[in-house]
Amino acid sequence: MSGNASARLCDMTVHELQGMLARGQVSSREITCDVLARMDEVEASIGAYVTIDREESLRSADAADAAIARARRDGDLGSVGELAGIPVALKDNVCTHGMRTTCCSKMLENFIPPYDATVAERLRAAGAVIVGKTNMDEFAMGSTTETSIFHVTRNPWDPGRVPGGSSGGCAAAVAAGEAAAAIGSDTGGSIRQPASFCGVVGMKPTYGRVSRYGVVAFSSSLDTIGPVTRDVHDCAIMLNAIAGRDERDSTSAPDAVPDYSEYVDRGVRGLRIGMPKEFFGPGMSDGVRSVVERAVRALESAGARIVEVSIPLVEHALAVYYLVATAEASSNMARLDGIRYGYRPEGRADVDVADLMSLSRGQSFGMEVKRRIMLGTFVLSSGNFDSFYGRALRSRRLLKEEVERALTECDCLASPTAPTVAFRFDEEPDDPLAMYLQDIYTTLANLAGVPAISVPCGFANEMPVGLQIMGRMFDEGTLIQVGRAVELGSGIGGRRPVVGGCAK
Amino acid sequence: MTERGDYEVVVGIEVHAELATESKVFCGCKTDFGARPNSQTCPVCLGMPGALPVLNRRALEYTIRAGLALNCSIARWTKFDRKNYFYPDLAKGYQISQYDIPIAHDGYIDIEVDGQPKRIRVRRVHLEEETAKLVHAGDDIISSNQSLLDFNRSGIGLIEIVSDADMRSADEARAYLTKLRSILVALGVSDCKMEEGSMRCEANVSVMPKGSKEYGTLAELKNIASFRAVHRAIQYESARQIELVRAGGRVSRETRHWDDARGETAFMRSKEQAADYRYFPEPDLMPLEIAPGWVEEIRSGLPELPDARAARYVGQFGLPTSDAAQIAESRELASFFDSVCDALAKAGQAQAADGPREAAKWLVGDVSAALNAGGIELSQSKLAPELLAELIGLVGSGKISGKIAKSVFEEVFARGVRPGDVVRERGLVQISDAGELAAIVKRVIEANPGPVADYFAGKERAIGFLVGQIMKETRGRANPQETNRILKEELAKRS
Ligand SMILES: [Zn+2]
């Protein structure tokens, strides 16, 4: 999308806004006000946010404006943070100092962290204006954002459809112009699938690329933190701001962080793009299949070589994923016992401490959270450990080896992000297992630890379709490079949902 | 008493010792004892959402140090695991611990009971984190309707040291614990204060017919708060089990609670009621590779351990074995002793030859007694090594008698004054001059014709009375050997 005159500030990309701010054509206050105005117009119908902090947003917008003005006067724009004055939203599992962080659960409904997550800290240090916290499935467990205790979030392209999940609020906010960019978390597809459903770009970086410190853990060995943006260039800019070693996260990698925006215009000539044949079998809707295949052909015409690869074990990915994720979740959720913080049943001074913890958890966790805690507890229990968790870990290692082997035959892997476009609220499967199939293409990257991006590549039934590109460990650069080519080849650049007039 | 008739007692011991690192094991919080409750906490040790652990390298080093001193092998590769259970003192709902790959394994401790040396195997040493402290408000846990939590302790590094079931009596168990504590304290890895809870132990006790190869069913004893309690608890429990088995009953696998006031163990829970901890590898911490080069570096930096130190005291200074062991066992006593020896050597070779033996005698005797009486540690007393060395020097050079030295010591210990000053101020210098002594002796003989007559009548004990009179006259300053010699001479002249 180019900065056409009729476009509103709240619909512009981060790189467009950066340019205008640097040239003094616009102030952060103007941008932030327009974003807040858009929220006023559409929040009632979209419901992307659970917390909006207007005053603090305007205060940090003014601070950014002062910093930019000073830097312009001194002729030293390099001294201003890369995201100075840019309105950014955070998923509500990213701890924000002094700002409620709920994970959209009754358990943490009133939890105000006394610390910032490292990503929040880095965004603030880069000058970003944190406008609010976005809706999500409770503790990131879900694929539709419906398990939030607050409200549903509606897809900006069609309010009768889900935004995807669990980072549905992030994707909807960015698609609807309620933030220039957002930060979500992705454990099995939670950034990529909603990005695909809402027609925005979403990236799950390599495990260890972005610090997890301060992001409420779901599954520690699978959780990743990444950007949701309007285009691939913005994805590179956001990743630049949050990537890199953090002493507070032992699993964060010391590997050097390149400037990802340098990959944006490299093109795909000579790159080998692998198509895992297992990903193009049955299970995908016809609409998604034709859009994805066309996107791959477009990459081919842009100079990439398409090669077929095979990851035979991928059929087990979903099972392995749900064993590992629930096992770790059951343990990670244990700290939420109502003792030091969090929900406590009222007027129950008569109960002993064990009952107090049971009641706190029993009354505050939703069905999906309870289901996963129970599954995970079962998986880890002494009689089952070897047959479930132990086996899952071994399978995970094999899967990782297969992915790595496939990535020696090509530079990256292409597939759909999700098997369908966003579904209608009333089409939704009742069976939780059917819902878990939403993650069929996405969990592999989390299990293998490799980076993956979802880029809008076309429309099926007037709803956006995302193409997923998976890369080698710490090779987010190639994903930016290929992602940008997908964007150019799709011919849909700049198409935005019509919001504001949506029926509630 | 512990071995009753045809039965043998089998004991294994599990010790938890808090590491003396300045900061906690997975966060940067301080570990000072006695700080205001919850003042040494952060999101990590409070188990706040999203907080992550980062391993304190010093805690790992201390664990390796302990492992090496306990003659263990150090793992090349290890990891942490989560031990999952719910309890209000457990911030995260799991404890970061080590399950199947401890940092150190398969070592031993040599002990001695009644002159019998014995080797007790150490199965493993692993690193984990402390829980918070739960304080029940009110008089006792039953009447209390409120519990308070102090997270200052949460996340302090803890090492767990597990022995094999190699001990055969309560005495051996106590000797094992005493030796273990002296080693850990000498290493500086833990202060091992049972009364502050920085060292805790659990004993696994079972009995079996003498000569049997098969251990009986064990009971796990908890809530043991002192070495004395360990001894009593093992004695009580083994007697209970023997009685039970003799009466045709069967010991059941259970955890029992030691009630120190009543002096008995009581059923707590059975094996079946034990929690399933659902151990799994801690995903928030990377597996650890321990470089052999680093282990060797740590090994070469190990301080002298109690056994080696005692051997040196015997070899170098000719100390009696029991004095040497007693001093070497306490880091404080040993370093004090070393300083006294240094001061003596500096003061002159003549005194130094016998000095260390004298110093040892003082330390295990009067000094320990005075410390016990005052209920204080050596470091809290006013006695300095130089003062004790000076006192030993005064005796060695014949300036004061051993008896006078004891009273000088009392004053030095109480006030921290120099022994030489006490002697000068109180005019306590020993009278060794033969002429001076002879004059006093003659005076006493003349003044006491009765006892002198008794002496000549064959009552040898009368001489003691006369010596007493001389000491009284000189206020104890008469050189005892000289006095005896001159008194006998003078009496002989009159016979
Ligand atoms: Zn802490």
Structure explained in plain terms:
The complex is a heterodimer of chains A (504) and B (495). Chain A is of the alpha/beta class and 504 residues long. Helix content of chain A is 38%, strand content 13%. Chain A has helices at 14-22, 28-46, 54-74, 118-125, 168-175, 192-198, 232-242, 286-301, 317-332, 353-364, 367-380, 386-409, 432-436, 443-448, 476-490; strands at 49-52, 87-91, 129-134, 181-186, 201-204, 224-229, 272-276, 305-309, 412-416, 452-460, 463-471. In chain A, helix 5 (168-175) packs parallel to helix 6 (192-198) and helix 7 (232-242) packs antiparallel against helix 15. The two termini of chain A are 28 Å apart. Chain B has a nine-stranded mixed beta sheet with strand order 2-6-7-10-1-11-12-13-14. A three-stranded antiparallel beta sheet of chain B has the order 5-4-15, with no helix packed on it. In chain B, a hairpin with a 4-residue loop joins strand 13 and strand 14 (264-270). Chain B is an alpha+beta fold and 495 residues long. Chain B folds into three domains: 12-208 and 268-297, no CATH class; 306-426, no CATH class; 434-494, Arc Repressor Mutant, subunit A. The chains are: A alpha/beta (504), B alpha+beta (495). Chain A binds chain B through residues 93, 95, 101, 103, 108, 111, 113-115, 117, 212-217, 219-221, 247-251, 327-328, 330-331, 333-337, 339-341, 353-354, 357, 377, 380-382, 385, 389, and chain B through 43, 46-55, 82, 84, 86, 88, 91-94, 147, 149, 276, 278-280, 283-286. The complex binds zinc ion.
Topology:
The complex is a heterodimer of chains A (504) and B (495).
Chain A: H1 14-22, H2 28-46, E1 49-52, H3 54-74, E2 87-91, H4 118-125, E3 129-134, H5 168-175, E4 181-186, H6 192-198, E5 201-204, E6 224-229, H7 232-242, E7 272-276, H8 286-301, E8 305-309, H9 317-332, H10 353-364, H11 367-380, H12 386-409, E9 412-416, H13 432-436, H14 443-448, E10 452-460, E11 463-471, H15 476-490
Parallel strand pairs in A: 2-3, 2-4, 7-8, 7-9
Antiparallel strand pairs in A: 1-3, 4-6, 5-6, 5-10, 9-11, 10-11
Helix pairs in contact in A: 2-3, 5-6, 7-15, 8-15, 9-11, 9-12
Chain B: E1 7-18, H1 57-69, E2 73-74, E3 77-78, E4 81-84, E5 94-97, E6 104-113, E7 116-129, E8 133-137, E9 146-150, E10 157-163, H2 170-187, E11 199-209, E12 219-224, H3 227-246, E13 254-259, E14 264-270, E15 280-281, E16 288-289, H4 292-300, H5 306-317, H6 321-329, H7 331-347, H8 349-352, H9 355-374, H10 385-396, H11 402-415, H12 419-425, H13 434-447, H14 449-456, H15 462-474, H16 480-494
Parallel strand pairs in B: 12-13
Antiparallel strand pairs in B: 1-10, 1-11, 2-6, 3-16, 4-5, 4-15, 6-7, 7-10, 8-9, 11-12, 13-14
Helix pairs in contact in B: 2-3, 5-6, 6-9, 7-9, 7-10, 9-10, 10-11, 13-15, 13-16, 14-15, 15-16
The complex binds zinc ion.
